[in-house]
Amino acid sequence: MYFTAQQIAAFLNGQIEGNPDARVNMVAKIEEAGESQLSFVANPKYEDYLYSTHASIIIVNEDLQLHGSVAPTLIRVKNAYDGFASLLQLYNEMKSRNKKQGIEQPAHVSETAQLGKDVYIGAFSYIGEHVELGEGVQIFPGCYVGDGVKIGAGSRVFAGVKIYDACSLGARVTVHSGAVIGGDGFGFAPQADGTYKKVPQIGNVVVEDDVEIGANTTLDRATMGSTIIRKGVKMDNLIQIAHNVEVGEHTVIAAQAGISGSTKLGKGCMIGGQVGMVGHIQIADGTRINAQSGISKSVETAHQALNGSPAFDYRTSLKSQAIYRNLPELQQRVTRLEEELKTLTELLKSTASSPQTL
């Protein structure tokens, strides 16, 4: 299906520069786009491609200053990245109108399960006792949905996901392949003989509305109570969330981050890749943590940017890194100063001990 620049601009409330009848039927990266394809430029690093691309339509920021002639039709919007994301969302919605429905065979669906309207359950999936699936829920092939699980309307659980007993997912939740929700938390009590005794994990995991959980991410069930992922949280692939953790609303977490038990993250936090956090701490609202940082104590001041291991103020950490890189030179300077100081001290001693002459 083709769309014109005029149609796209109307949807995005943008301004057209060029041919309003230019048509596209595919999207592509700016450096690879060709005829009848749409792309966008939001990062200044990619602006040079504007003057060489073969794309038919490009979405750009409304304040972009051109430095040469541009062949494609431009659509200027307030935020090009956000506008492009809106188009992709529209594309997904159009695809979902033809989404799968019904129960494929072979699949096991318990007689006590409650299935909403237009539910899809893929082949080789297992739906346990007293499961509740809301309207339009999609369970793709090879999934396990344990007893008593609840999944809200419009949620999608991709192939190979495992959801343990009594866990709860809200509406419009997306869980990508390989994720495990509700596995036991890491609870073992050390014994006098050096062994460890397992502490039963009898809680669950509660995922609120509009959450996205990346592939092979694991959310451990609580020892008691709930591990809670608040609404709007976005998690990348390969993330570990331990027992009784709470992740605040609209927090984003990048790949390979690990959050230890009973840690509480505030609202709107941004957690970089491979960040590690100890357990039983509090992270204030709006905290931003750079990749590979280690958080060893609570963050009490909101909207801080942190870096390093152990992490501290971002700007201070960058200054420290600059000094660290210059340590060899600084050592040489200190050595020279010590030698000069020694020479000066010896000279002063020699002068003090010499007889005075008139």
The CATH H-level superfamily of the largest domain is Hexapeptide repeat proteins
Largest sheet: 12 strands, mixed
Helix count from the secondary structure assignment: 4
Mean pLDDT over all positions: 93
Give the N-to-C terminal Cα separation. Answer: 107 Å
Portion of residues within helices: 10-25%
**Number of DSSP strands?**
40
C-alpha geometry = flat
> What structural class is derived from the secondary structure elements?
alpha/beta
Condensed summary:
With 358 residues, this protein is of the alpha/beta class. It folds into two domains: 94 residues, Udp-n-acetylmuramoylalanyl-d-glutamate--2,6- Diaminopimelate Ligase, Chain: A, domain 1, CATH 3.40.1390; 215 residues, UDP N-Acetylglucosamine Acyltransferase, domain 1, CATH 2.160.10.10.
